[in-house]
Specification:
This protein is about 70% helix and about 0% strand. With about 130 residues, it is an all-alpha fold. Helix 1 crosses helix 2, helix 1 packs across helix 5 and helix 4 crosses helix 5. The longest helix has 22 residues. The chain is globular, with a radius of gyration of 14 Å.
Length: about 130
Amino acid sequence: MEIVTHNATSLAWMGDALMTLKVRKHLLDKGYQKADILQKKSARLCSAKGQAVILDRLMQEDFFTEEEKQILHRGRNATIHSKAKNADGQTYLKATALEALLGYLYLYDHHQRLAQCLDQIVEKGDSL
């Protein structure tokens, strides 16, 4: 694993954008066209609650490598000065962990693994 020079909050910020983009593209590919429906479905999947559920499912399947688990741990320990409007602190930190991992994979050029993670997130999210 590279020495991570970005803080967990910055990684999460990048990961959030990547996840939102992937989810919205997935919904468009599935044929959803109306903006209000796209927004509602995307918001449910990209919400802190949705991300926490997805992270729990992937952890149960032992999907992540040991290095990725370290990044997830770092993301869970991020210092957050605000929290999601509709989620408790633990849920929000789980979401931040998942976003931080995605940001890490992108910023450190692990694009193949990033694609695998995003595909799994979308697959798990389809059942939410």
